[in-house]
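Co-fold these.
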Amino acid sequence: MTKKEIISKLTTIVKPYIQNEEGFKNISENTDFINDLEINSANLVDIVLDVEDEFNIEIDNDSMEKMLSVKAVVGIIQEKQSA
Amino acid sequence: MKNRVVITGLGVVAPNGVGLSAFTNALKSGISGITFHQHLKDKGFSCCIGGIPSISEEKKSEYLTPLQLRGFNSTSILYGCIAAIDAWKDAGFSVDENSDLDYDSGLIFGTGTSGIEKFREAIYKIDDQKVRRLGSTSVLQTMASGISAYLGGILGFGNQVTTNSSACSTGTEALLLGFERIKNGKAKRMLVGSSSDSSLYTWGGFDAMRVMSYKHNESPEKGSRPMSETAAGFVPGSGAGALILESLESALERKATIYAEVLGGNINSGGQRNGGTLTAPNAAAVQKCITNAMLDAKISSNEIDVINGHLTATSKDAFEIENWTKALQRKGVDFPYINSLKSMVGHCLAASGAIESVASVLQIKEQFVFPNINCEDLNPEISALISTDKIPTKMIQKDIHILAKASFGFGDVNACVIFKKYN
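Predicted complex below.
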């Protein structure tokens, strides 16, 4: 799966949780979930679960802690998919 | 100088009417909200009827955001949010997620159990070794104070925000706790109320105790029969009631509509002594709760025009009436009018005190006494104590100045509030 495809799917996943529309419109690899999208930190665990379901992967605790930005999530998904 | 406390907003989600106008109409017309539920029968319940408010998906989305509704599975929180938001708006306020923090407003919103269906989900996942799949929604929907946590954020309250729980006296207790807070100058406004979920997991234990009626599965609307000779146990109900309490000063300043005044009340316990048990009331404590409520309200018993009783449709109804006659020192034709909302909506458990308080306040505001349905065959033990015409089976118009409302709960706990027409 290309990076672009992953970001597109990830955009759909985070949509219900975002509180900053402007940040969401400009979503890119450099987007930070909490600072740019104002996602409630409690919802980060929900995003992880949604990512697991969508990409059919399992995310361990260490990886989970790193999932704070689009770039980090894309990296983890690519890593798990190639594993 | 203590503050006078008035009611400036109401909201209700009841089995026989969601929203004030539908509920008022149901009250006046004696409409039952009790229906048959196949899922109770399928699970082997003896009592297969109950009161469940009707809420469409569309209605849910008017009160909760798509994010709040993700993984949402708590009817108690849902009903509470709808009733409370309606009450807040009814009092003339708006709901705005960007509103300024309001340190003068707080809330006490009770429940028995927050989201038992959500809790069940969590148990299944954990037993299946999938604890991480609980996500972020489990804690907020299963903690007892889930309802107050949701509302505190939706309304932006900065005063006390909490949940109380005292079985079937929860709603009336919440009202009195909020009343005290305003009276003592700790808050200008308190949203008070309670909610109870529509879940067979909440109702199952009562079915097992054989305190629910199993005799009217074929005639649900006839099932809830407070004060009737053929009363055969309570019918479970669910929903929420909410009231906005406000200092008279604040209400007058805002030129708010005033439904009624809260004159006073009392909360006590029978300590499970002298006949009181976990499930049965200590009669002396019940009477003391009522007499202390009158003392607190500075009224004499002959000023009470109407009583809204607890009256669940169990064998305890006559016992409750006897307690009222002793506490008030009034009986026969001298007894006030008395009614039980449970004849129409069943026993809404933790929500009952709040829904019934809303019904009580509506009676004062619109000067009527709602009918007791299913009471055509009055229990002779009751007619031996008070005159039959004090238990109206049709709505009557009446000048009501003072109404007493009481709720009693498992654990031998009591609450009684005195409402007065505002003028």
